[in-house]
Amino acid sequence: MVETCLFHNTLVCLPTGLGKTFVAANVILNYYRWFPDGKIFFLAPTRPLVNQQKMAVECLKEIDEDDLLELTGSVRAKKRKEYYEQKRLFFMTPQTIENDLTNGILDPEKIVLIIFGTFPSGSIY
Predict the structure, then answer these.
(1) Which of 5, 93, 116, 117 makes a 20 to 30 Å CA pair with 123?
(2) What CATH number is given to the structural domain containing 56?
(3) Is 113 helix (H, G, I), strand (E, B) or coil?
């Protein structure tokens, strides 16, 4: 699964506890190495899920902790823009990245990877 995700847009559907986060973490690690100036986003529908995914990726010692950031819409737009210039790996809700792309705060050409985390059944993002 990891190999497929590295080179193709992929939807990974597995029951809880069977490795979705493991696959995502390995893909993130590779893109982090391959694109030293690229921006990586892990999106989840709720703040608790955003935090949970960030904690899982923080365990990867190959990723500099200073490059990771949990970002929410409660952070002022000017500050989020600064973070986009300074950091490389962002954990956030889809609404925040959508707003920042729409408002020109985030340059879409710098994005190299977006992972959509677990979403509640019936939700469409």
Answers:
(1) 5
(2) 3.40.50.300
(3) strand
